[in-house]
UniProtKB/TrEMBL annotation:
The lineage of its organism: Eukaryota, Metazoa, Ecdysozoa, Nematoda, Chromadorea. Residues 91-215, 290-416 form the HotDog ACOT-type domain. The chain crosses the membrane at residues 21-37. Coiled coil: none annotated. One of its GO terms (molecular function) is fatty acyl-CoA hydrolase activity. This is HotDog ACOT-type domain-containing protein. Belongs to the acyl coenzyme A hydrolase family. It comes from Caenorhabditis remanei (Caenorhabditis vulgaris).
Length: 448
């Protein structure tokens, strides 16, 4: 039941003329928000177009003066806590009016390229994080402390089963929902009107951002804290704080006794099918995990760089998603839909000139749902001796360093029961169990 205060707000909204109103609830990760805007005016206003958001972030960072504060000031300057509302921003991808944007976002199937959406989400997360640490809620003002804000990981991106139309405006909004000492969580959402002008919720995402010293990326720079105004906001902040605490606990990644028994019983069944001792045999409905590998390699060009001169994280997510989507289509022998992305990690920066490798595997399947893992690694022809020291030379592999990990949950649209994937080696068993956890959590969260 709506509170009296909220009911009063809605009645006031309904009294407005020539305005389109929406009341959108969005789990506990966001407070209840009311969007009030003229859709047509909003989509054509250059101050709210997504390109304006990207350019304003670049301009803000370009004005940063790393030497404007002494080391003592960086450690002692008082940073007043912000509210969640302080960093709230919304922008639009103007697909209804910008034909160039339509072509840029159009997929081969005639829908919207989700890889492009990932790039926009990454841009938006950085923008919101800078707004949180700016004065007067605007990026026109200088930074409260000189800092570089980058994406550390993406905790989760969930997609609703709603088709994204390629010629209707997409609305993206977000805000900081947690701030620690030097890290923040930014929650983002996507909306689009349907043919009846009803606002559909397309996507929700949670990005983990970190603040670093522009002169030394290994050093952290403090960020403004976050204060709650309502019990719901306090619950959101506390829940995210608990998640940050668990992130560093390696015990959460260890196999449980139930998982050990699962693997044991699986191999007993595989070996039990053979007349030869200790030889595993697959059924016609199964496939070895290593047989699902699909890879792509390319050189990192300057056009992919972000405002810091590194390869843009959104570009890495887009390439990983498109590879995972292709692999899933081949595995399912038909069309697939992306349902969730989990535990996207940015372990090391990728430089211009690096040779970038993406390797994908199907790690777990359940009925029509499949889990795909993509690992990114780099090799640098000018630093092969140094990189080789980090690899075991007896493996005979090219010297590489792992930089990113991506996990995607897909749904087979045309095939209700896909092949069951089976790990043959121990290294694949760990991926199998990880994929099982991720897929089961996704099914509980967005399907069941």
């Amino acid at each position: 039941m709506l509170s009296r205060h909220l009911a009063k707000q809605i009645s006031q909204v309904r009294a407005l003329t020539k305005l389109q109103y929406f009341v959108v609830t969005f789990s506990a990760s966001f407070p209840l928000l009311i969007f009030i805007f003229q859709t047509r005016k909003f989509s054509t206003d250059p101050n709210y177009v997504i390109d304006k958001m990207v350019s304003s972030t670049f301009t803000h960072v370009a004005k940063c003066q790393p030497d404007s504060f002494s080391a003592e000031e960086k450690n002692t300057k008082v940073l007043e806590p912000r509210t969640i509302e302080h960093s709230y921003r919304k922008f639009v991808i103007p697909l209804s009016t910008d034909t160039d944007k339509q072509k840029e976002y159009l997929s081969a199937s005639g829908s919207v390229r989700l890889g492009k959406i990932l790039e926009d989400l990454d841009h938006m997360a950085v923008h919101v994080a800078y707004v949180h640490n700016s004065d007067n809620r605007t990026l026109d003002e200088p930074m409260t402390l000189p800092r570089t804000i980058v994406t550390a990981s993406v905790k989760r991106i969930d997609l609703n089963k709603v088709d994204i139309h390629p010629s209707r405006d997409i609305i993206i909004d977000g805000q900081v929902t947690y701030a620690g000492t030097s890290s923040m969580q930014v929650c983002l959402r996507l909306f689009q009107n349907d043919e009846n002008e009803n606002l559909n919720h397309l996507l929700k995402a949670e990005f983990i951002m970190v603040s670093r010293d522009p002169l030394d990326g290994t050093k952290s720079v403090r960020v403004h804290g976050l204060t709650a105004r309502t019990p719901d906001e306090a619950e959101t902040i506390n829940r995210t704080k608990e998640h940050f605490r668990k992130m560093g606990n390696s015990a959460n990644r260890q196999p449980t006794n139930e998982e050990f028994n699962l693997i044991h019983n699986m191999y007993n069944e595989l070996i039990g099918r053979s007349m030869v001792h200790d030889v595993a045999v697959l059924s016609k409905s199964e496939m070895w995990m290593h047989k699902t590998n699909l890879s792509v390699t390319e050189i990192c060009f300057p056009e992919y760089q972000n405002m810091y001169g590194k390869i843009f994280g959104g570009f890495l997510m887009r390439k990983a998603l498109e590879l995972a989507h292709t692999n899933a289509k081949l595995y399912c022998k038909g069309r697939v839909a992306i349902r969730s992305m989990d535990q996207i990690e940015f372990k090391k920066p990728v430089e211009i000139g690096h040779v970038l490798h993406f390797d994908s595997f199907v790690t777990y399947t359940d009925g029509r749902y499949i889990q795909v893992k993509v690992g990114a690694s780099i090799s640098d022809q000018h630093q092969l001796p140094e990189l080789a020291k980090l690899n075991n030379p007896t493996l005979g592999e090219e010297a590489r360093v792992n930089t990113n990990v991506f996990n995607f949950t897909m749904e087979s649209v045309e095939n209700p029961s896909v092949l069951k994937v089976v790990p043959k080696h121990y290294v694949h068993t760990t991926s199998y169990l990880e994929g099982r956890r991720l897929l089961n959590n996704t099914l509980k969260r967005i399907v069941n």
